[in-house]
Amino acid sequence: MPADAPDVFDALAHPIRRRLLMELRTGAKSASDLAADMPIGRPAVAEHMQVLRRAGLVKVERAGRLQMHHLDPRPLADVGGWLNLMLAHWAQRVEDLGRLT
Questions:
Q1: Could you give the CA distance from residue 47 to residue 30 in angstroms, rounded to a whole number?
Q2: What is the pLDDT of residue 22?
Q3: What is the rounded CA–CA span in Å between residue 86 and residue 67?
Q4: Would you place residue 2 in the very low, low, confident or very high pLDDT band (cuts 50, 70, 90)?
Q5: Alpha-carbon distance 84 to 92, whole Å?
Q6: Strand 66-71 to strand 29-30: parallel, antiparallel, or no bridges (unpaired)?
Q7: Residue 5 has what pLDDT?
Q8: CB 38 within 8 A of CB 29
Q9: CA 30/CA 28 separation, integer angstroms
Q10: Can you give the residue ranges of every domain in the chain?
Q11: What pTM does this model have?
């Protein structure tokens, strides 16, 4: 991944990008299809999709004249692993605090 690429957390930080990913979990869609369900225009959707692509969360495949966007869940697995580590750490800390009282 290029040094200037946004990390997955940066990409997930924006609610529109999270909503776009939710739309893609049901299958590949064009930018026009995605824009139809968003409160923003197609150019703004394209900018958000660029961030998601650069973070590795979306892959693009040509289908004739259309570019079809596909969710790539692999980076989300890394985030899930990190979150599980954090949850385990803080669960242990809370348990340790409980023993002190």
A1: 14
A2: 95
A3: 37
A4: very low
A5: 12
A6: antiparallel
A7: 52
A8: no
A9: 7
A10: 8-72
A11: 0.78
d(CA 64, CA 73): 25
Question: E strands, 4-91, where?
Answer: 29-30, 58-63, 66-71
**75 to 34, 52, 56: CA distances (angstroms):** 21, 11, 7
Q: Could you tell me how many residues make up the chain?
A: 101
Nearest to 44 by CA among 64, 14, 73: 14
Report residue 53 as tokens.
């692509």
> How far apart (Å, rounded) are the C-alpha atoms in residues 40 and 92?
43
Q: Between residues 3 and 59, which one has the greater pLDDT? A: 59
Tokens linked to 2: 């290029």
CATH value of 8-72 in 1.10.630.10, 1.10.3720.10, 1.10.10.10, 1.10.10.60: 1.10.10.10
Residue type (1 letter), 48: H
